[in-house]
Amino acid sequence: MLPRLTDITDLRGRHVLLRASLNVPVQFGTVRNEFRIVRALPTLRYLHAHGARTIVVAHIGRKPEDSLEPVAQALSEHIPVSFVPAIEGAEVDEARAAMEDGDTILLENIRQHPREKDDDGSVAAALAHLADYYVNDAFAASHRPHASLVGVPRHLPSCFGINFMHEYEELTKAITPTAPSLFVLGGAKFETKLPLVERHLDHYSQIFIGGALANDFFKARGHEVGTSLVSDISLADSPLITDERILTPVDVVVDGPDGRRTCLPTEVQPSESILDAGPETIAMLGPHVRRAETILWNGPLGNYEAGYGQQTEALAHMIAAARGYAIIGGGDTIAAVEKLQLQERIGFMSTAGGAMLTFLETGTLPAIEAVTNKP
Questions:
Q1: Where does 5-165 sit in CATH, by number?
Q2: Hey, what CATH class is 176-341 in?
Q3: pLDDT tens digits for range 52-82
Q4: Predicted TM-score of the model (pTM)
């Protein structure tokens, strides 16, 4: 049993360091999608209602100079929050000293600190010095062994927030699915996802491999893949290639010198690139989706960001209409569902991508181990 924030009610006057998941898309200084912000609100509101003095630590973007100030502005539409444009030092200390019960402050992007990613002991100690308790609500980042995730729990009484526990409980269901079940895995980099497929082959009735991952199967079967994206590993000698529990696209959308077309996987030309599954693939998946009691889906069926999203969106419609319980995650997968406004018809939408896959593969995360295995 993981230690939960909701087991603690005596927080009045206590400083709580909350590691939140607020890595949201920002364009021209404005938050474009509040999915993760909305999921962070139950924990923030619990802390506020119980009188905690909450110091929020989070990251955003891929560049060290990316700022959480637009996130603070978006958060302030939901709860009172003050932004502190620093990670440590006098400005943070002054803001902390001025806090009253129920106050919330958001510090600047923790990844602006050059030693955050190294789990540097000094970073963890400096963050821990600010608080009496540590709460991890950032499931989506908890596969990273960073200071704010695995270092701080060494110094403070620690537990997990409401969103974190929701993620943990829902994804635990996916590890032991109700049969019949279907696992749809898309995206790229099969070398990182091979252990996941091998682990769940006996757990799921069928595993469908889509996206660029399918190209590795086509290549291993001796098919031409042209200029398509493939992984660094070869599946030529893998028993997965002939396992009847594994499904791959039966038609593909390719693009090349002669334009875009749909063809069989055996008909791809050397000058073409496979960029999406085809409509017959969705038709093939239909019976599996409709009879499944559990559906797990992570990753698009094509190059979604480049505009090849037709079959990903067709699958989203199909899963939303299915009677089975669906658990989905991954940025492009979530984006497709939100674009189509199908959120209310999906059992659970994870805020995580890489952390979701790591948890499904191992049953734990570095940040979970940091709290549960501390001395």
A1: 3.40.50.1260
A2: alpha beta
A3: 999 999 999 988 789 999 999 999 999 999 9
A4: 0.94
